[in-house]
Amino acid sequence: MTVTGKLCLIQRGSIPDKIGDMSWILSLDISRNQLSGELPTSLSKLNFLSHLNVSYNNFSGEIPLSTQLQSMEASSFIGNQLCGPPLPKDAEMKIITQKVEMQVEEKRAKKKTSTGFDWE
Hints:
It is a single-pass type I membrane protein. It is found in: Membrane. It is a single chain. This protein is of the alpha/beta class. The chain has a domain at 12-87: Leucine-rich repeat, LRR (right-handed beta-alpha superhelix) (Alpha-Beta Horseshoe), CATH 3.80.10. The protein contains 2 helices and 6 strands; from the N terminus they run βββββαβα.
């Protein structure tokens, strides 16, 4: 069975621990919200997860250990107070964060110059 569509989650608060019961999730992007707390260890149960982005929230603590989560890009976790693999050490993380922020600014500048407006 294949499930497609959008999953509507809360934009504030924490990720419910029951998210690990949703084994059908292939992609989860909850970036740029006001979510906080620790990432639930149940995320490690999402064996088919191929894309995860929790960047720019208020998460803290260690990233749960699992092959799936450790194989994600470090940029998927920036903008939080998270630690552990796949995040590099502090100095390397600052460089990655700066590069991502520069890319976002470049995209924003392109949008603004092509339309004359900044829609974000």
